[in-house]
């Protein structure tokens, strides 16, 4: 209990600090009279909660708590980490997002026309450009390992706009940042539990001292039959269901009949992963907990499936490796198999698909077969799946520039599972074959 109290004390102390304040484990431990180990654990929780940001060569800085929906744009702090930069001023602005970056390879007057509030100027050792950019509300990234002047550092602190230096050249840092922005677009497609669960709203729950009578009353009030059970610290220690309550007397404590060591999930896991856990374990409700198993909220199977349906209707943003591999393959609708159980897909094997021996990579072939199955199931049954196992047979090598056909067929299909057979043919000759079993989900 004493450690938990000190832990909360440290978090309250961090919250009381001004945004932009740099802190260290050693300094906080000395200030509060606690061990460095306890402070380190609290720092980790504070970082997860969005109270501080810890970055290499910058240290730990008090930041504004940000909701995930604002994380689509890179922050100056993230840019500093990406380019392996050092911070020389404006620590209070590390958490600010940037909406674009400008390469300062032009005259100063022309450069200023492109710089506005929230942008990042990437430039070399040009003191006047550094100062003007900060005056315009932009952060500054100095390339080539040069350092800013004392005047510019003071201005950065005053404006709360980071000024960062990197040893890399302008082209390299621009490429690094552009790649990170592109990756962020892809991450926007991945919906997490924290995106759909209101973690600030208290969840319906029971405590270890409650009885079956309390369970029955809560069930009548909410219309639910499944509740997490927490101890006096708020940690999830069990799950109480109607099955657990059968034949138990009204005055029986719930901790005697509850299901102990229940399955829980973290707020930062994907909704798809939660759907898989629910289906595999046969549960309709999961407690959402923090790293200390304290209850943050609950999520139901219906909420997960509704989220998957919503995500499936959103436009794609950014191409993954799977998207790039599949590009160029099209469905030949006129060649749909006569029983209506599959499509035939055609495409050209490009040089980028080659392996070390100059033939198409085995891994690429497996990806192509999996993508063909996914597209067929989405088209025919408006569903999706999670692969459980796939067995592949490479019959003959496929040369670059070959036109191949991929034919997936559903051998078995039920509400929960499917078994598929996939064939790859090169010039009409069997080149590869696979057998796949998958768990079905309903995102549409």
UniProtKB/TrEMBL annotation:
It comes from the Bacteria. InterPro entries: CBS_dom (IPR000644), CBS_dom_sf (IPR046342), Diverse_CBS-Domain (IPR051257), DRTGG (IPR010766), HotDog_dom_sf (IPR029069), Ser_kin/Pase_Hpr-like_N_sf (IPR028979), WH-like_DNA-bd_sf (IPR036388), WH_DNA-bd_sf (IPR036390). Keywords: CBS domain. The keyword Ribosomal protein does not apply. Residues 199-256, 258-316 form the CBS domain. SMART domains: CBS. PROSITE patterns: CBS. CDD domains: CBS_pair_DRTGG_assoc. SUPFAM superfamilies: CBS-domain pair (SSF54631), HprK N-terminal domain-like (SSF75138), Thioesterase/thiol ester dehydrase-isomerase (SSF54637), Winged helix' DNA-binding domain (SSF46785). This is CBS domain-containing protein.
């Amino acid at each position: 209990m004493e450690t938990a109290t000190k832990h909360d004390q440290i978090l309250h102390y961090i919250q009381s600090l001004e945004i932009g304040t740099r802190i260290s484990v050693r300094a906080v431990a000395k200030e509060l009279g606690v061990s460095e180990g306890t402070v380190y654990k609290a720092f980790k929780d504070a970082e997860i909660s969005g109270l501080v940001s810890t970055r290499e060569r910058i240290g730990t800085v008090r930041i504004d708590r940000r909701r995930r929906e604002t994380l689509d744009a890179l922050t100056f702090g993230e840019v500093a980490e990406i380019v392996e930069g050092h911070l020389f001023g404006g620590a209070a602005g590390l958490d600010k997002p940037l909406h674009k970056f400008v390469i300062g390879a032009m005259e100063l007057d022309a450069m200023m026309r492109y710089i506005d509030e929230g942008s990042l100027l990437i430039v070399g050792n040009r003191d006047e450009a550094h100062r003007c950019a900060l005056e315009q509300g932009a952060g500054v990234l100095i390339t080539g390992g040069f350092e800013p002047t004392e005047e510019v550092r003071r201005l950065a602190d005053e404006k709360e706009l980071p000024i960062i230096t990197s040893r890399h050249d302008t082209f390299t840092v621009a490429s690094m940042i552009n790649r990170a922005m592109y990756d962020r677009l892809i991450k926007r497609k991945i919906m997490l539990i924290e995106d759909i669960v209101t973690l600030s709203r208290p969840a319906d729950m029971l405590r270890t001292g409650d009885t079956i009578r309390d369970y029955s009353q809560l069930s009548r009030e909410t219309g639910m039959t499944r509740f997490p059970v927490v101890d006096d610290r708020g940690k999830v220690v069990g799950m109480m269901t109607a099955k657990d309550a059968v034949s138990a007397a009204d005055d029986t404590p719930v901790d005697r009949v509850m299901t102990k060591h229940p399955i829980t999930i973290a707020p930062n896991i994907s909704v798809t992963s939660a759907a898989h856990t629910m289906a595999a374990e046969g549960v309709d409700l999961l407690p959402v907990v923090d790293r200390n198993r304290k209850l943050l909220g609950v999520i139901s199977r219906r909420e997960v499936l509704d989220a998957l349906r919503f995500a499936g209707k959103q436009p794609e943003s950014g191409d993954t490796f799977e998207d790039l591999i599949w590009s160029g393959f099209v469905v030949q609708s006129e060649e749909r198999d006569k029983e209506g159980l599959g499509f035939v897909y055609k495409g050209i094997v490009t040089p980028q698909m080659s392996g070390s021996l100059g033939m198409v990579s085995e891994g690429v072939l497996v990806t192509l077969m999996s993508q063909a199955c996914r597209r067929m199931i989405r088209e025919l049954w408006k569903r999706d799946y999670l692969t459980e196992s796939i067995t592949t047979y490479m019959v003959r090598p496929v040369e670059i520039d070959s036109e191949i056909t991929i034919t997936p067929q559903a051998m078995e299909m039920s509400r929960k599972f499917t078994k598929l057979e996939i064939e790859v043919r090169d010039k009409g000759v069997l080149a590869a074959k696979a057998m796949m079993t998958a768990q079905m989900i309903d995102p549409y």
